[in-house]
Amino acid sequence: MRTPPRHRLLGTALHAVTGLVVTALVVTALVGGGGVAAAGTPAYAPVDQPGPALTVPAADLAKSLECTANVRNATREPVLLTPATTVDSDQNFGFNYEPLLRKLGIPYCTSNAPADRANMGDMQTRAQYVTYGIRTMHELAGRRIAVLGHSQGGMIMRWSLRFWPDTRDLVDDVIGMAGTNHGSAIVPALCVPNCAAALWQQRANSEFVQALNSGQETFPGISYTEIYSRTDEFVQPNLDDHGTSSLHGGGGAVTNVAVQDVCPLDVSEHLLIGTMDPVTSALALDALAHPGPADPSRIARSTCAQLLMPGVDPVRGPLTFATLTAQVAAQLTVAAPRVASEPALACYVTASCVK
């Protein structure tokens, strides 16, 4: 069988990704970065407990959201784009999903924290911006919205849904691309001896991850499409639908799908899955176009022969991706502020909080 063009170009990545994963897992084991919950885990707030007031200054919240004009009184479901750790919305989505959504006439907004555009700080603060974005978009559009995100951005909306229950009636679709829903076994190796706050919180055994998934993982009335890759070198383990990206239980309608379930030869790694992978974009658009989550059986087999997702310029796109890769490496190694431990859970997360 003739190998599709995108896999001729990317096929060698599989061996490199496998090596990275194995190496990182060995280091993780050596530094004790397992996934076992720590003793004395707190009792978490009930899932129906009203959310706290936002403490981020109103001016910063207002600056964080940028929307297309057609979000106001939207005639179709608008999309809130939430970027990954190490990048902002422009870097993550400016050369792919933004032009694609504009071409299709789909309204959208981007969310960026003014003081932490690379999303390396405390994700509890980041979630306040996302909560503001969900509420404001719903008010502008006059209808329920979708939240589409990559990596941290594929998970962070779930903190809003868990701890600000009013947002559940405002969101129709959650679409995660390599979301760190249960953390990653790889991240602890990056935190020796220290790392950025958001990395501490994305360890598989972090207090943040345990709180995020407390009570229930999904909520009735919301459709969840969780897209992952078995060759993701960063969000691991993700070998099947019981991996870190996948969701189970709680009442929401859920599709957990690997890009390899649609195209077995797809070797998209962590950055590709949220930026240029055509299988991922096809699943995301399917979720937006139909009631409920994406259905992999509706994805055309011709997608497997595509090199790039629609919306990506075939010349400038790969060049932008190369720049993005350098940006990610710089943030992970030298650029981002590093802290000695995971930020403490906010009071509202626990059942014992006195307001």
TrEMBL record:
Gene3D superfamilies: alpha/beta hydrolase
Family matches, as SUPFAM superfamilies: alpha/beta-Hydrolases
Signal peptide extent: none
Family matches, as InterPro entries: AB_hydrolase_fold, Lipase_EstA/Esterase_EstB, Stereospecific_Lipase
Domain of life: Bacteria
Name of the molecule in the record: Lipase
Lineage of the organism: Bacteria, Bacillati, Actinomycetota, Actinomycetes, Pseudonocardiales
